[in-house]
């Protein structure tokens, strides 16, 4: 059989057996050209070790389920080619900043809690129109970048802030908030943005761009943080000089 032998070094841990502690398991497997990390993981689970736990679904980099740390960097296992690594040892670990449930599966509750807090949906105050709400191509392009987020939590795992402040909103939630703040159809008030106007929101970001490096969809969450900061400063300036605006 063609292909090369790779060693997959996978961090194992079961929260239901905490006394055992985390440890690495090693799996040697022949990999042919074109196989992704996820494909190999499925093979390991099906043929070598049925106890191995990880998440996966679409296999096409659209659901975000298979996010994990691959050779030190958060990424999607389904889009990462094994052959892209020169080293024949691939190290797989769960995403940081979240509790491990088992092996590569983490408890994403903190991530979803922060996501929910920013009200990640269209807010309308005007009466429902008879027809669809028109949005120009130019207006749509303003938010395109942030629409691409698939909520994989790679950025949240890469961010250094949640490790020291679990109450920090996180890059994905802030990017989603900017997505709706830029939406010409959204009518949330300027006051509604005040919930992220502190060190647990946009001012807590260290601006290290790790979320940008980790994002598989080029959302660039730091751009969202900067955009929200500018909006909040502009809103404060308008109130100071009495211009007014949405409240």
Helix and strand arrangement:
Layout: E1 4-12, E2 23-31, H1 37-48, E3 67-70, E4 73-76, E5 89-93, E6 100-102, E7 105-106, H2 109-117, H3 137-147, H4 154-158, H5 161-164, H6 171-181, H7 210-214, H8 221-241
Parallel strand pairs: 1-5
Antiparallel strand pairs: 1-2, 3-4, 3-5, 6-7
* Anisotropy-based shape: elongated
Total domain units: 2
| Helix-strand makeup class | alpha+beta
Output the CATH homologous superfamily of the largest domain. Answer: Alpha-helical ferredoxin
Strand and helix order: EEHEEEEEHHHHHHH
Task: Indicate the proportion of strand residues.
Answer: 5-15%
Biggest sheet, in brief?
A: 5 strands, mixed
**Architecture of the largest domain, according to CATH?**
Orthogonal Bundle
Give the overall pLDDT as a whole number. Answer: 94
Give the helix tally: 8
Helix content: 25-40%
Classify the fold: give the CATH topology of the largest domain. Fumarate Reductase Iron-sulfur Protein, Chain B, domain 2
Question: What strand order characterises the main sheet?
Answer: 2-1-5-3-4
- Give a count of the beta strands, DSSP E runs of length 2 or more: 7
CATH class category name of the largest domain? Mainly Alpha
Oligomer: single chain
Question: What is the radius of gyration?
Answer: 21 Å
């Amino acid at each position: 059989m063609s292909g090369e032998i790779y060693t997959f070094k996978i961090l194992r841990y079961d929260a239901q057996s905490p006394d055992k502690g985390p440890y690495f398991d090693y799996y040697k497997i022949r990999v042919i050209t074109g196989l992704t990390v996820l494909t190999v993981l499925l093979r390991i689970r099906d043929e070598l070790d049925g106890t191995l736990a990880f998440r996966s679904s679409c296999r096409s980099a659209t659901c975000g389920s298979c996010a994990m740390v691959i050779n030190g960097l958060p990424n999607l296992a389904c889009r990462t080619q094994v052959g892209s690594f020169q080293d024949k040892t691939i190290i797989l670990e769960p995403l940081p900043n979240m509790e491990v449930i088992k092996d590569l599966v983490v408890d994403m509750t903190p991530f979803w809690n922060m996501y929910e807090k920013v009200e990640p949906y269209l807010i309308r105050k005007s009466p429902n129109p008879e027809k669809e709400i028109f949005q120009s191509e130019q207006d749509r392009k303003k938010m395109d970048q942030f629409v691409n987020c698939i909520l994989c939590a790679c950025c949240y795992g890469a961010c250094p802030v949640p490790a020291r402040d679990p109450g920090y909103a996180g890059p994905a939630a802030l990017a989603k908030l900017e997505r709706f703040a830029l939406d010409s159809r959204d009518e949330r008030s300027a006051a509604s943005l005040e919930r992220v106007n502190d060190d647990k929101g946009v001012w807590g970001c260290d601006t290290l761009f790790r979320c940008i490096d980790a994002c598989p969809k080029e959302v660039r969450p730091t751009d969202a943080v900067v955009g929200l900061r500018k909006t909040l400063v502009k809103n404060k300036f308008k109130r100071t000089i009495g211009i007014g605006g949405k409240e």
